[in-house]
Amino acid sequence: MENYLDTHTHVTNFPCGATPCAMPAQCPLQILVIDHENGPAHTLIDVLSRVFGPRVSYILADDESTVQYVLACCEPELIVAGLDARAINILALLPDIRSTYRTLPILAVGRHVSCFTQEESHQFGADEVLELPYRAAELKSLVVTLAQRYLQPAGSAA
Question: In the list 41, 64, 94, 103, which could disulfide-bond 82, CB 3.0-4.6 Å?
Answer without folding.
Answer: 41
